[in-house]
């Protein structure tokens, strides 16, 4: 699209990229600063890096917002650096195609509502909380096989008990985690031979013969 404006030069893509990078960096810094101020005012807990944390859903929303703040920088670079309509970033028509957007939303909205309805009407397996939680892929898949009855209640309790035992051993540095400090200090010895696959060992043995 930049080539069709008649104003294209070799330096414009480089300048546009620099504007996008600098603009996005500034916006992310402003977002991070505002988030920290809000976290201080709301007395939010801190993570291991000393940054305010907002829970799984809140942190995910902030991550998505950090991506979204790049949009103004891209539009400004297209308009002021490449001298083309900002709408050409999203459409060959140079503007937002409202009819196409409306059609896509009309197709997507019923599917999203159906998904939410199925999730709300699906019975919760025994022993699990009915509160909604922000689940990653593994958690979602496990909850799904629970709903399908692939994992029984007894097996689910066994998994919970095993998880509790492992977390307790990790916290107490006992059991298999008793030597955790030694594991962290482990280093490869330079005098050790370089590991190789079985054919390599076979070839080495043959060479010694």
General description of the model:
Helix 1 (11-41) packs antiparallel against helix 3 (70-81). The protein folds into 2 domains: 2-89, no CATH class; 120-184, no CATH class. It has 209 residues and is an all-alpha fold. The chain has 8 helices and no strands. The N and C termini lie far apart (68 Å). The radius of gyration is 28 Å and the shape is extended. The chain has helices spanning 11-41, 55-68, 70-81, 98-121, 137-147, 153-172, 180-184, 198-208.
Point out poorly predicted stretches.
Answer: 202-209
Q: If helices are DSSP runs of H or I spanning 4 or more residues, what is the number of helices?
A: 8
Amino- and carboxy-terminal Cα gap: 68 Å
Question: What gyration radius follows from the Cα positions, in whole Å?
Answer: 28 Å
TL;DR?
With 209 residues, the chain is mostly helical.
List keywords for this structure.
disordered C terminus, 209 residues, mainly alpha, 2 domains, 8 helices, extended
Please describe the topology of this protein.
Layout: H1 11-41, H2 55-68, H3 70-81, H4 98-121, H5 137-147, H6 153-172, H7 180-184, H8 198-208
Helix pairs in contact: 1-3
């Amino acid at each position: 699209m930049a080539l069709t404006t008649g104003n294209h030069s070799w330096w414009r893509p480089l300048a546009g990229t620099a504007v996008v990078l600098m603009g996005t960096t500034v916006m992310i810094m402003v977002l991070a600063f505002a988030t920290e101020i809000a976290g201080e005012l709301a007395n939010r807990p801190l993570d291991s890096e000393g940054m305010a944390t907002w829970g799984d859903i809140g942190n995910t929303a902030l991550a998505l917002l950090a991506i979204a703040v790049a949009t103004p920088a891209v539009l400004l670079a297209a308009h002021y650096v490449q001298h083309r309509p900002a709408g050409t970033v999203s459409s060959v028509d140079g503007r937002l195609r409202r009819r196409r957007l409306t059609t896509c939303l009309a197709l997507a909205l019923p599917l999203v509502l159906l998904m939410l309805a199925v999730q709300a009407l699906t019975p919760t397996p025994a022993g699990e909380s009915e509160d909604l939680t922000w689940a990653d892929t593994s958690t979602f898949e496990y909850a799904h096989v629970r709903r399908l009855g692939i994992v029984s209640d007894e097996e689910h309790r066994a998994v919970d008990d095993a998880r509790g035992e492992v977390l307790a051993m990790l916290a107490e540095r006992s059991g298999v985690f008793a030597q955790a400090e030694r594991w962290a200090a482990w280093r490869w010895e330079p005098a050790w031979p370089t590991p190789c696959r079985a054919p390599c060992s076979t070839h080495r043995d043959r060479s010694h013969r």
